[in-house]
Write a structure and sequence with these properties.
- There is one protein chain.
- The protein is mainly beta and 101 residues long.
- 9% of the residues lie in helices and 30% in strands.
- Strands 1-2-6-5-4-3 form a six-stranded antiparallel sheet, with helices on one face.
- Strand 1 (22-24) and strand 2 (31-35) form a beta hairpin.
- The longest helix is centred in the last third of the chain and has 9 residues, at 92-100.
Length: 101
């Protein structure tokens, strides 16, 4: 692993091409919003390899777009069809508002 990129060794920032997640809101209404890095299956700049999320969560949509909602007793998350995410100990209405920003 010595020659592996820093993110694979558990150090450093987000992988190349990914934006650092950001916190939106305050206190208990804080939501983490970011973009899932996309890589082509062969590691080149070709067609990105997107996981099939169709069996995960419940389909949702709003002003922010569409995606899948995952809820638990501790929190919830939305994974959008365009590769964004929002997660926090809040309801999905707050997640949707954070994605719409």
């Amino acid at each position: 692993m010595e020659n592996a990129p820093a993110h694979e060794r558990g150090r450093g920032g987000p992988p190349t091409g990914a934006e650092r997640p950001r916190a939106v809101g305050e206190g208990w209404d804080t939501v983490v919003v970011g973009t899932v890095p996309q890589r082509a299956p062969d590691g080149t700049g070709g067609q990105p390899d997107r996981p099939d999320l169709s069996a995960l969560g419940t389909p949702v949509s709003g002003a922010w777009g569409s995606g899948r909602e995952i809820t638990t007793t501790a929190g919830s998350a939305i994974l959008t069809d365009d590769g964004r995410f929002a997660a926090g100990a809040v309801g999905t209405d707050v997640l949707g508002a954070a994605l719409a920003r």
